[in-house]
Write a structure and sequence with these properties.
With about 280 residues, this protein is mainly alpha-helical. Helices cover about 80% and strands about 0% of the residues. It has 13 helices and no strands. Helix 3 crosses helix 13, helix 4 packs across helix 8 and helix 4 runs antiparallel to helix 10. The two termini are about 45 Å apart.
Length: about 280
């Protein structure tokens, strides 16, 4: 009995230490982010504590500024177009790579996900060297294509992971009933992998919306996005409205994370129902 009590006591102490370490680690990770939020409501014009008062003027300035409005529209437009291209290309690539008889899969897959591995500065310089002779620098098509290339690996990974648990007998059954490959894809494959496709699309849009290095290489004054506008504000002058925009981006990231979790739950539910 004493041994059991000592074991239970030791497990409880260890569990409490694990919880404490987890809380401290989370606080260490999110403290720099949370520190921005109160400063965005500061009545003063400096990035410092203590706060001089509560004010919403920086949010008003950010939401009414023509520069921020144009940057937001650029980020949404470029992100939407890049996400559409990345979703289509990534889904098609995942469908091909998921086939057992696909040749050179171990070689092609690392090439597709290389934008996630190679330093972004190297990727941006490569885009510039390729796009400059083609006249795509300082243009919307160039920025959209570059962001689509950055977002495609996320779609490939999420859709490929979903297809690994896909029941191939469903495709054979559809073919046996006379369905064409397109009808089989539209009515059988696509509905089952839609949560994974949507999850990859969310990651692709977030990648485009938050990207700043490539836009500095490829984009011009007309293609200024929210991250580039923030970069310009920090470099040229310390504008507290940047903190208001940063806080809104934090809220946007939380909503994206919540939507990804919801889509992941849908995918798991669909996989369990299929099994």
């Amino acid at each position: 009995m004493p041994d059991k009590r000592n074991t239970v006591l030791t497990e409880r102490v260890a569990s409490r230490w694990v919880r404490l370490h987890t809380v401290l680690t989370l606080f260490f990770l999110i403290a720099p982010i949370l520190a921005i939020v109160p400063l965005s409501f500061n009545a003063g014009s400096y990035f410092s504590y203590p706060l001089t008062g509560f004010s919403m003027r920086w949010y008003e300035q950010a939401l009414t500024s023509p520069d921020w409005q144009r940057a937001l529209l650029n980020s949404i437009g470029i992100g939407a177009a890049a996400t559409l291209i990345a979703t289509c290309l990534g889904t098609l690539a995942a469908l091909g790579l998921s086939r057992p008889q696909f040749p050179l899969r171990s070689v092609i897959m690392p090439i597709i996900i290389s934008p996630m591995i190679v330093p972004i500065v190297v990727v941006a310089a490569g885009f510039y060297l390729i796009f400059a002779p083609l006249g795509l620098v300082n243009s919307y098509p160039g920025v959209i294509l570059a962001h689509a290339a950055l977002g495609t690996p996320f779609v490939v990974i999420t859709v490929t992971a979903s297809l690994l648990s896909f029941d191939q007998s469903l495709l054979r059954a559809a073919a046996g009933l006379g369905a064409t490959p397109w009808v089989t894809f539209r009515r059988v494959t696509l509905p089952l992998i839609t949560p994974a496709v949507a999850t990859g699309s969310v990651f692709a849009f977030a990648t485009s919306f938050d990207e700043v290095i490539v836009i500095l290489f490829i984009g011009g004054p007309d293609q200024k996005t929210v991250p580039r506008q923030m970069w310009s504000g920090i470099r040229d002058s310390i504008d507290p409205s940047i903190l208001a925009v940063a806080t809104m981006l934090i809220v946007f990231a939380v909503l994206l994370f919540a939507s990804i979790n919801w889509l992941r739950g849908r995918a798991m539910a669909a996989s369990q129902a299929l099994n």
